[in-house]
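[Solved] Which block belongs to which protein?

Original post:
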Amino acid sequence: MLFTKTSIDFTIILGVILVSGLIGFFYDYKRYVFTYKLEGYLSYILSFLQNALFLGGLIGLLFLSINFFLPDHTKTKKEYKIIDRYSVRGRKYHRSERKPVFIIEFNKKEKNIQYSHSYLKEMDSFKSITIESQIGFFGFEIIKNKTLNK
């Protein structure tokens, strides 16, 4: 949810996860080898993967959370033209309820904006989306409110 509501590029999040996993690897490697009695390249690979997945995932989540929950107080509204549209299946036990997804150009890259299944019948009549956004703690834009326009 946090990733879809921000304009943070996936490579930045992946970088945060890998760097924090690498730092955790250097800190934890001796204890990891002592605990699991592994030797060779396997110990390096498994230790790095464990630190990248768990420590890196936690640091990545904290990065997204701090950016999202500590934003600047000024809000801006801007209208974006819908580039393309398609629909996806609903969640478990609601597979028959298709949800419309609209593609817009948000901060010079394509962003998928998903709405509830109740907008599916009128999907082709919408021309633009008005987005109310704020700047997050780390300077990445956060989508606070989105409105479809005909």
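(Second protein starts here: sequence line, then its structure tokens.)
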Amino acid sequence: MYNNHRINYKNMQQLIIQVADKEKAEMLLKIISALDFVKSVEVVEDNNNIADSEQDFFDLAGIWENRDISTQSIRQEAWRTENK
């Protein structure tokens, strides 16, 4: 049973574990959840991959096409002060 010890949740540690195989992840989840000193276990499925990020990057190709923009014009616009 419990030994009347108070758990200080402020000093708790968090672990992030990435497991490639779903079956092994489920096994590890069962083992970790059975430990009496583990407060909670959260499962987060990571659906992001490099291919998605690369695709997002290339979707932006050409957004500045046919626009007269230079580093100088961007700086001027960023540092422009309004006359009041």
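Accepted answer:
You had them paired correctly. Confirming on the second one: The chain is about 35% helix and 0% strand.
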